[in-house]
C-alpha cells in the first residue's frame, strides 16, 4: 500500500516552467502551529535577526477560529500570546485555507503539522499526504522543509542512521504513522529532482521545553514516565532501548528556524537528523529517584512493566498508558538494544555555519549546548508542569 500511495502522490505533483521564478519575499508559511513543535517554531522564527512575516495555516472553520487556536496553544505552552508578539512588531497571520495564502509571497514553507497517532492505519494518512502535495503545488518557488520522524527509517540495520533518504519502505517502522512519514520523505526527494527546493529535518524524540517543561502527556515516552504514579514501577529502558537522544522542543524549533533558510536551490533534498547527543536512559531513572517530590518507584525489566500495565487494565484502573498498550508491547523486540543512534554531523555543521553567518563567535559551543539533550532540572520542570496541569 505504501508504494501505491507514493506513486499516487508523485503523480499529483504539478510544476511548469513558469514556476521557476525566484521569490523575493520574506514570508514563512507554517503548518502545525497549534502543536508543541509548531508553536515553538513560530516563536523561534519570529526571534530571528531579520524576523519574517509568518502565515499559519490551521485546520479551522474560519480565520477567527484559526487565530484563536494558535493563541490558545501559545498560552498553554507558557509562550508570549499573539497580542504580545504583535506589540513588539511580529507580523503573524492565521488562515484556514490555502486559497487565502496565495496572495502572499511565500519564501519558505515549514511542513510541521502531522497527525501523531501510533494506532492509525496507513490509509488514515491519505489526507495529510495530499495536503503536502497541495502545498508543494501551490508554492513551487518556495523552499520547503519537511519535519519528518526518525521512525521513517528506524527499522534499518544501519547504525548510526545516516542523514539521507532511505528508498526501502522496510526501513520504516511497521506503523501507519511511520510509513506515512517514509512516503512523504520520498515525495520530497522526488520533488527536488523535479525542480523544487526541499529539505527534511528528521526529528527524534522531542520533549518538554527548557523554560517550563511543557511536554504533551499523551506521547509514548511521556506516558511511560507518568505511569509510575499509579503502577509504582518504571521500565529499565525507553521504548527504543537503553540510550536516548531526547531533544527539548524549544531547541528543536530553534534548529528548524535556521535550517529552513539553508535549503539548497540545487536539485537535491538535504536531510538532517534532528536529535540530541546520546545519553543513557538510566540517567533519567536516577534523576527521578533523587527527586524527593516524586513518589517512590521500582525499576523493572521492560517486559515486567508491560505485565504490570496489562494487570492494571484488567483491574480497570485509570491508567493513561493503557491507550498505547499495543505499541508498548510491540517494542518488546528492542530488549537488549542500546537504542537508536543517529548521525547528526550534517546537522551540527549546518547549524554552526548559520550561526557564523549571524555573527556568533562561539557557534560550536552554542550548537553543542542546544543539542546536549535533557538534564535533571528540565526533568523536574516537566513533572512540576504535569502536576500543575493535572497530569501527574
What's the topology here?
Elements: H1 2-12, E1 27-31, H2 36-46, E2 53-57, H3 63-76, H4 82-87, E3 92-95, H5 98-101, E4 106-111, H6 126-138, E5 143-149, H7 176-193, E6 197-203, E7 206-207, H8 220-231, E8 233-235, E9 243-244, E10 247-248, H9 249-259, E11 269-274, E12 279-280, H10 281-290, E13 298-300, H11 302-314, H12 325-330, H13 345-357, H14 363-370, H15 376-388
Helix pairs in contact: 1-6, 1-7, 2-9, 6-7, 13-14
List keywords for this structure.
392 residues, two-stranded parallel ribbon, alpha/beta, Rossmann fold
How would you explain this protein's 3D organization?
This protein has 392 residues and is α/β, with parallel strands linked by helices. The chain has 2 domains: 2-209 and 245-279 and 340-370, Rossmann fold; 220-243 and 280-337 and 376-387. It is built from 15 helices and 13 strands. The chain has helices at 2-12, 36-46, 63-76, 82-87, 98-101, 126-138, 176-193, 220-231, 249-259, 281-290, 302-314, 325-330, 345-357, 363-370, 376-388; strands at 27-31, 53-57, 92-95, 106-111, 143-149, 197-203, 206-207, 233-235, 243-244, 247-248, 269-274, 279-280, 298-300. The chain has a 7-stranded parallel beta sheet with strand order 3-2-1-4-5-6-11, sandwiched between helices. The chain has a two-stranded parallel sheet with strand order 7-10. Strand 4 (106-111), helix 6 (126-138) and strand 5 (143-149) form a beta-alpha-beta unit. It is globular and about 60 Å long. The mean pLDDT is 93.
Quick recap:
By secondary structure, the chain is an alpha/beta fold. The chain is 42% helix and 14% strand.
Amino acid at each position: 500500500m505504501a508504494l501505491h500511495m507514493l506513486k499516487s502522490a508523485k503523480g499529483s505533483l504539478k510544476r511548469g516552467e513558469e514556476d521557476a521564478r525566484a521569490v523575493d519575499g520574506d514570508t514563512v508559511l507554517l503548518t502545525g502551529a497549534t502543536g508543541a513543535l509548531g508553536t515553538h517554531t513560530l516563536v523561534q522564527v519570529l526571534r530571528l535577526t531579520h524576523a519574517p512575516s509568518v502565515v499559519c495555516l490551521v485546520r479551522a472553520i474560519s480565520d477567527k477560529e484559526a487565530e484563536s487556536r494558535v493563541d490558545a496553544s501559545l498560552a498553554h505552552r507558557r509562550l508570549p500570546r499573539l497580542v504580545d508578539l504583535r506589540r513588539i512588531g511580529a507580523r503573524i497571520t492565521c488562515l484556514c485555507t490555502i486559497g487565502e495564502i496565495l496572495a502572499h509571497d511565500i519564501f519558505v514553507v515549514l511542513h510541521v503539522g502531522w497527525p501523531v497517532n501510533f494506532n492509525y492505519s496507513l490509509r488514515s494518512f491519505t489526507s495529510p499526504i495530499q495536503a503536502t502535495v497541495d502545498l508543494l503545488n501551490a508554492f513551487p518557488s518556495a523552499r520547503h522543509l519537511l519535519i519528518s520522524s526518525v521512525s521513517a527509517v528506524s527499522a534499518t540495520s544501519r547504525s548510526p542512521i545516516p542523514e539521507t533518504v532511505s528508498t526501502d519502505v522496510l526501513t520504516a517502522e511497521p506503523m501507519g504513522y511511520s510509513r506515512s512519514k517514509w512516503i512523504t520523505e520520498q515525495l520530497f526527494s522526488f520533488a527536488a529532482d523535479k525542480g523544487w527546493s526541499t529539505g527534511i529535518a528528521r526529528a527524534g524524540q522531542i520533549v518538554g521545553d527548557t523554560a517550563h517543561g511543557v511536554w504533551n502527556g499523551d506521547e509514548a515516552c511521556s506516558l511511560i514516565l507518568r505511569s509510575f504514579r499509579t503502577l509504582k514501577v518504571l521500565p529499565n529502558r525507553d521504548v527504543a532501548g537503553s540510550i536516548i537522544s531526547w531533544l527539548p522542543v524549544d531547541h528543536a524549533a530553534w534548529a528548524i528556524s535556521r535550517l529552513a533558510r539553508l535549503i539548497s536551490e540545487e536539485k537535491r533534498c538535504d536531510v538532517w537528523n534532528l536529535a540530541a547527543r546520546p545519553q543513557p536512559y538510566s540517567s533519567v531513572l536516577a534523576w527521578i529517584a533523587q527527586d524527593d517530590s516524586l513518589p517512590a518507584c521500582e525499576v523493572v525489566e521492560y517486559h515486567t512493566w508491560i505485565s504490570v500495565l496489562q494487570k492494571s487494565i484488567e483491574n480497570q484502573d485509570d491508567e493513561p498508558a493503557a491507550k498505547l498498550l499495543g505499541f508498548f508491547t510491540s517494542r518488546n523486540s528492542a530488549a537488549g538494544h542500546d537504542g537508536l543512534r543517529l548521525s547528526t554531523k550534517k546537522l551540527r555543521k549546518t547549524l554552526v555555519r548559520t550561526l557564523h553567518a549571524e555573527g556568533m563567535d562561539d557557534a560550536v559551543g552554542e550548537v553543542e549546548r542546544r543539542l546536549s539533550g535533557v538534564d535533571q532540572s528540565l526533568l523536574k520542570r516537566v513533572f512540576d508542569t504535569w502536576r500543575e496541569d493535572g497530569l501527574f
